[in-house]
Amino acid sequence: MQRQPWFEIHDSRWFPAYLRDLVTEALEAIWNSNRTYVPIAGRLRDAVRNSGSRSVVDLCSGGGGPWPGLYDIIADGQPLSVRLTDLYPNAGFRSNGRLPAGISVCREAVDARHVPEDLHGFRTIFSSFHHFDPEAARALLADAFRRREGIGVFEAARRTPGTMLSVAGVAALSLRTAAAQRPVRPARLLFTFLLPVIPLTLWIDGLLSCLRSYSLEDMHELTAGLTAPDYAWQMGDEHGGTVPIRYLIGTPQRRA
Predict the structure, then answer these.
(1) In three state form, how does the secondary structure of 80-124 look?
(2) How far apart, in whole angstroms, are the C-alpha atoms of residue 104 and residue 43?
(3) Domain count along the chain
(4) What's the pTM value of the predicted model, to 2 decimals?
(5) Domain residue limits at 137
(6) Listed residue (4, 36, 22) closest to 200, CA to CA
(7) Which of 93, 107, 145, 216 has CA atoms 20 to 30 A from the CA of 2?
C-alpha cells in the first residue's frame, strides 16, 4: 500500500464545526466554478445507467460537492434522484435552498462504511476517499459490493508534482469564490479575507490530500477479493480537465 497515513486539518476533532462547514462549502464552490469533475461526467452517467438505478446516494458530501454542477449532465433529461449524505451534515448547505430539483439532503449522519439499509442507489464519493485509511476504505467498497450497489469513487488529489502545484491555485480560487458565493455570510468573509483561515486550510489540506491519495495499485489491492460474476470493477485516470481525475467504479452486472 503506497498511501501515507497523514492527517488533514479540517478532519481533526479540534477543528471547529463551523469552520469545517466553511471549508467544505469553499471546496464545493471551487469544484463547480472550475468544472473540476466535468471530465468524468460521461463515465459516471454510463455507470449509473448500467447499474439499472435511477437514484444516487452521494457519500461524504460536505458542502454539496460537485453534484449541483453535474446533475443535469448525469440525468441527461431522465428522472434521477440524488441524496447528499455526510457523517457531519453541513448545516449551512441544508438551509440555503441552493439545490437543483432532483437533489435532496439527508439530515441524519451517514457513515460511508455502513450505509443504512433504507438508502438505496448508485453510490458516489468525490474527493473524500483518501480520508479513509485502508481498512475503512475497503469496508466502504465491501459494503457496496455486498449489497450489489454501484459505486463511483472520484479523486482529484494525486501524488504528482503537477497536481500538488495546482493546490496553491485552489487557495487562490477560494478568494474569488468567497466574494461571489450566495447567500453572503459574514463568517465566510471574515475567515477568508481578514483572517485567512479558509485559504490556508485549503492549501495545507490540499497538499496532505495528495500525499494521502490512493494509487491505482492501491485500488487494485483494496478491491482484491471483492469479485463475483455479477459485479465488475474498473479504474483509471480521466484526463481533459484542469487536473486528471482518478476513478474507481464498481457496477452490478445483473442489472446491465
Answers:
(1) CEEEEEECCCCHHHHHCCCCCCCEEEEEEECCCCCCCCCCCCEEE
(2) 23
(3) 1
(4) 0.90
(5) 9-255
(6) 22
(7) 145
